[in-house]
Write a structure and sequence with these properties.
With 265 residues, the protein is an all-alpha fold. Helices cover 79% and strands 0% of the residues. Helix 3 runs antiparallel to helix 8 and helix 6 runs antiparallel to helix 7. The protein is globular, with a radius of gyration of 18 Å. The chain starts with 6 loop residues before the first helix and ends with a helix. InterPro entries: TM_pro_TauE-like, TSUP.
Length: 265
């Protein structure tokens, strides 16, 4: 597959992997860049091939981020582990449903997700500055139940589609459980690694992964994550958010045009 691709397409996919890792390391949502890039760069690939290849690229970045967050933040594993296990189970189920998606349905679904998450990114308030757990130590069962529900729901979405999963995990942990943004991000990375791994457990035996492209994007994803962490410290998250929204808008326009042509021959 790699040998038949135009060098320009490979460069485009490599840069998308770099940008995805860069954005994901700081604000989450790298899949909102990487999957649409695959959609644009590999027009002949099936939806399940796009999803599987995206997972291979993403898991390399989330593995690096998970290790880094664990070493620096030391997130509470009493929540992180159940969240990751529930997300793993949900992602297996979602990935199984991904084989039912058609290319005709894939473009509009991704477009809706892109627009929705883009609007959310622009409109969301500055929450998660302080950690105020909604279910404290006196109600551990409710905390665990909410954690498992978040893991299954977001994990199922990630297995079936995926864009914005990291942001959805962070949003759910902050808004539903009351975690601070940094602690939520650390847990989200661990859970996101679990969902990517679960999806690959389903996709790899089916031969759905385009390995050369996925490994290329994965290597760039890791590099982007490293650069993103350094730039975030030096420039702050505002710079990254602007970068994220601009790139997101470009993909909305491109996929929107393709969807329009698909619906109106």
């Amino acid at each position: 597959m790699l040998e038949t691709l135009d060098p320009g397409v490979l460069t485009f996919l490599a840069l998308a992997g770099l940008a995805a890792g860069f954005v994901d390391a700081v604000v989450g949502g790298g899949g909102l860049i990487q999957l649409p890039a695959l959609l644009v760069g590999l027009p002949g690939a099936s939806p399940v091939q796009l999803l599987a290849t995206n997972k291979l690229g993403s898991i390399m970045g989330t593995a690096t981020s998970s290790i880094t967050y664990y070493r620096r933040i030391r997130p509470d594993l009493r929540t992180a582990v159940p969240l990751a296990l529930a997300a793993f189970a949900g992602s297996v189920g979602g990935a199984s449903l991904a084989f039912l998606l058609t290319r005709e349905a894939f473009n509009p679904i991704i477009l809706v997700v892109l627009v929705g998450v883009g609007l959310y990114t622009l409109a969301r308030p500055s929450m998660g500055q302080l950690q105020r757990l909604r279910f404290g130590h006196r109600r551990p069962r409710r905390h665990l139940a909410a954690t498992l529900l978040i893991g299954v729901l977001v994990g199922s979405y990630d297995g079936a589609l995926g864009p914005g999963t990291g942001s959805f995990f962070v949003f759910a942990l902050v808004s539903a459980l009351g975690y601070g943004f940094l602690e939520a991000s650390a847990k989200a990375k661990i859970a996101n690694f679990a969902t990517n791994l679960a999806a690959l457990v389903v996709f790899v035996p089916q031969g759905a992964v385009i390995w050369q492209v996925g490994l290329l994007m994965g290597a760039c994803n890791v590099l982007g994550g490293y650069l993103g962490t350094r730039v975030a410290v030096a420039r702050g998250s505002r710079f990254v958010r602007v970068f994220f929204v601009v790139v997101l808008a470009a993909f909305v326009v491109r996929i929107g045009v393709d969807t329009w042509r698909q619906l109106v021959p």
